[in-house]
Design goal:
two-stranded antiparallel sheet; two-stranded parallel sheet; mainly alpha; 2 domains; 237 residues
Length: 237
C-alpha cells in the first residue's frame, strides 16, 4: 500500500487561474486595439506638404517598441496560465537500498572564467548530497584540460574526507563549504554544543588551507597551461 502512495500531490489554484486569465483577456483586448490604432496610421490621409519620412520614422520606432514589449509580455504569461502548488511527502520515499543510482555531471572549461575554488565547491556540494554514497557518482568534465583543475580535484578529494562526515554527522543543510562558512549557522543541528563548534573551527581551518593551496599553485601552473583547444584526453578516478 505504501508503494502506491504518491510522492507529491498537485493542487490547481482555481482562483488564481480565474484572475490571471481574466487579466490576460483584458490585456489582450487592449493590445489588439493598440495594434489596430498603429496599423490604421498607414491608411490615413497624409498632409501633402509634410515629408513621409518625417512621420513614418517615429511611428515605426514606437510601433516596433510596442510589438516587442507585447511579445515579451506574452511569453511571460505561460507560467501564469495554470498556477499550481505541490505538497511533497519525503517520508514516502523508498528505503536507501531501493533508491536508484544517480550520476552527477559537472562541466567546466576555463579556470579564469570559472574559478577553480567555485568549481570544487560545486563538486563538494554534489558529493555531500543526502543520498546513499554507494549510489551517488560525481563526474567533473574539464574541456579545457587545465592542470589547476586536476590539482583542485585532488585537493577537494582530501578536503572531502573531512567535510562529508561533518555534513552527515550534524545534518548540515548548506552543503557548499563556501556558502556554509559565509552564512549563518543557526540551522545546524547541535550548533550550540562545544563539540560542534570545535569541529566546525577545524573544518573551517582546513577549508582555508584548501583555498590557499589552490591559489598558491595557480601561479606555478599558469605559465605551463595546456591549450584548451588542443590537448590529449586525460581520465582520472
Amino acid at each position: 500500500m505504501e508503494d502506491s502512495l504518491p510522492l507529491h500531490v498537485c493542487h490547481v489554484q482555481t482562483l488564481s487561474i480565474f484572475i490571471n486569465r481574466s487579466h490576460v483577456l483584458l490585456h489582450s483586448i487592449a493590445l489588439a486595439f493598440l495594434i489596430y490604432y498603429r496599423i490604421s496610421f498607414l491608411f490615413q490621409d497624409q498632409d501633402p506638404n509634410a515629408k513621409a519620412t518625417h512621420l513614418f520614422l517615429p511611428w515605426l520606432l514606437v510601433c516596433a517598441s510596442e510589438l516587442l514589449l507585447s511579445f515579451i509580455w506574452l511569453l511571460d504569461q505561460a507560467f501564469r496560465w495554470r498556477p499550481v502548488t505541490r505538497t511533497v511527502f519525503p517520508e514516502r520515499l523508498p528505503e536507501d537500498d531501493k533508491l536508484p543510482a544517480i550520476d552527477v555531471f559537472i562541466c567546466t572549461t576555463d579556470p579564469d572564467k570559472e574559478p577553480t575554488v567555485e568549481v570544487m565547491n560545486t563538486v563538494l556540494s554534489a558529493m555531500a548530497l543526502d543520498y546513499p554514497p554507494e549510489k551517488l557518482h560525481v563526474y567533473l568534465s574539464d574541456d579545457g584540460g587545465s592542470p589547476i583543475t586536476l590539482y583542485g580535484m585532488k585537493e577537494a578529494y582530501s578536503f572531502a574526507r573531512w567535510w562529508l562526515p561533518f555534513c552527515r554527522k550534524y545534518r548540515i543543510k548548506t552543503r557548499s563549504p563556501e556558502a556554509y562558512f559565509s552564512g549563518s549557522k543557526d540551522d545546524d543541528e547541535g550548533s550550540e554544543s562545544s563539540e560542534f563548534m570545535s569541529e566546525r573551527r577545524k573544518i573551517q581551518e582546513r577549508y582555508v588551507i584548501f583555498k590557499e593551496s589552490i591559489a598558491n599553485v595557480r601561479g606555478r601552473v599558469d605559465g605551463n597551461r595546456i591549450p584548451a583547444r588542443d590537448h590529449p584526453s586525460l581520465i582520472e578516478f
